[in-house]
Amino acid sequence: MTSTVTPPTTSTQNKFEKFKAEKDGLAVKEQLEEFARIGWEAMDETDREHRLKWLGIFFRPVTPGKFMMRLRLPNGIINSDQMRVLGEIVQRYGSDGNADITTRQNLQLRGIRIEDVPDIFRKMKAVGLTSVQSGMDNVRNITGSPVAGIDGDELFDTRELCFQVQDMITNHGEGNSEFTNLPRKFNIAIAGCRDNSIHAEINDIAFIPAFLNETFGFNVLVGGFFSAKRCDAAIPLNAWVPPSDVVALCRAILELFRDKGLRANRQKARLMWLIDEMGLGQFRTEVVNRMGKPLAEAAAKDEIEWEKRDHIGVYKQKQPGLNFVGLHIPIGRLFAPDMFEIARVADVYGNGEIRLTVEENLLIPNIPDDKLEAFLAEPILQKFSIDPTPLNRALVSCTGAQFCGFALIETKNRALAMIKELDAELTLTKPVRIHWTGCPNSCGQPQVADIGLMGTKVRKDGKTVEGVDLYMGGKVGKDAHLGTCVRKGIPCADLKPLLREILSEKFAAIPKEGIATTT
Ligand code: SRM
Ligand code: SF4
């Protein structure tokens, strides 16, 4: 491991910069056995509530003593053995245990007790899993095309690059103190298909397929992010790189961000604030200097030409005789029996591989034609449909109040209940992408949705109640752009009639027979 790169403590630092300078987040790795012995209540508060996030372990004020664990699954790929190990972990926590597929094609586990963490880490390591550096001021899960290597229309198989970038950042999952003290969180995405399946526009660095003089490579976008204070789509760096330079470019930008990024105010510390401060031209020059070689100017055109696919259903792979099947996982939530069953069908019908998507769904690839019929008859497909209703199909939700201390409203369970009611009343022919997010941090990405709902508190009948701000107009895939807030402060109790109206007027929803059109 390389030596720690930590700025010294000063009296003007905010509390996060202070505690990072006092002790590197990764240092708690050596204390895990001690934490397990003394228990969560006796731990140092900063270790418990902040530094443990460097290992992917999140203290949950909503469920004290029951931690969340966020993994790293580059390109959203996991195999059946790994899924079973994770299933066994959450199973031991009974009704407290479950797993959520996240909006970065990743998994988070619930109910984790600190006394079990050393053993959990040993079991994860044995199957090649890590959760290192997945929270706080670290680089998040590296996203890539969920159909990489199996899509007949792909331009580039993103899998290897996603793993290489992760290995560079995390020192092959062991932890890398070169990148454990960034000014803020950081997102990287690599697109290999024509449909921008990873929401390139909302990442700090995104690689977009583009040919330069007929050579394949990527145009580079930088600075995309959402925060409570500001949301911005990524902007072109005016750079093109061949695949072989992707890791070096990520390293150069991360080092620049680490060394020059703004640290005084956490609301102004994401990469885009540094780009603003330096100016894009100077930022690019410094990246080139750190790479130690010139960057080609961006290719005139990129290859994102399609509407975004959701991959739910049955599709032929580029390998003759093989298929991938996309299962809809309502709001991304899995319980231990689901995880075991998914692992089993992936083994019996595929090659044990499972892919996750940023829409919180999953794919089972490599199913031979002659096993397809039997696979489609498996009972698990009754729960996780390959043909959900148009409203269910594109529903996404962040964690919300059930587990997240920032949440202003309950999201996942409410989102499901609302869609069930709307489904009973309306017929739609096309999916409508409805995204729920419990607070302005925007983990559920309401700005990319057709209809985005952001949790807030509102006054109704003299009381403070749960409500939402309404976002509309998010466009994904080709010509992606962010939606905007069109109406503020709608009490959740008043939301259904408004959604019915919007779905009818803007998305051609038709009331089902016998259902009244007003509520
Ligand atoms: Fe997020 C903080 C959950 C994707 C922007 N996010 C949090 C925390 C860790 C807050 C906390 O400690 O409670 C949430 C954990 C709740 C829990 O118990 O699950 C949380 N974020 C999530 C997940 C699980 C939402 C989901 O249900 O899928 C996603 C995990 C992704 C992963 O696997 O790593 C998740 N978060 C996002 C995204 C979407 C994306 O990356 O495409 C965003 C907006 C994009 C971005 O980051 O630019 C996002 N999360 C935030 C922010 C605002 C960042 C900022 O610059 O201000 C916070 C708050 C913070 O970092 O201070 C936050
Ligand atoms: Fe929690 Fe807010 Fe993120 Fe939802 S958007 S997971 S409520 S921080």
Features:
single chain; 519 residues; alpha+beta; 5-stranded antiparallel beta sheet; 21% strand; binds siroheme; binds iron/sulfur cluster
Report on the architecture of this protein:
The protein is of the alpha+beta class. 28% of the residues lie in helices and 21% in strands. It is built from 15 helices and 24 strands. Helix 4 packs antiparallel against helix 10 and helix 6 (159-170) packs parallel to helix 7. It is globular and about 70 Å long. Residues 398-400, 404, 406-407, 437-439, 441-444 line the site of iron/sulfur cluster. Iron/sulfur cluster (SF4) is lined by residues 398-400, 404, 406-407, 437-439, 441-444.
Please, what is the oligomeric state?
single chain
Average residue pLDDT: 96
Main sheet record: 5 strands, antiparallel
Q: Radius of gyration from the CA trace?
A: 23 Å
DSSP strand content: 15-25%
Report the helical percentage: 25-40%
Q: Can you tell me the overall shape?
A: globular
Distance linking N and C termini: 62 Å
Based on DSSP secondary structure assignment, what is the total number of beta strands? 24
Helix count, DSSP H or I runs of 4 or more residues? 15
Spans of at least 5 consecutive residues with low confidence: none
Structural class by secondary-structure content: alpha+beta
How is the largest sheet built, in terms of strand order? 1-2-5-4-15
Small molecules in complex: siroheme, iron/sulfur cluster
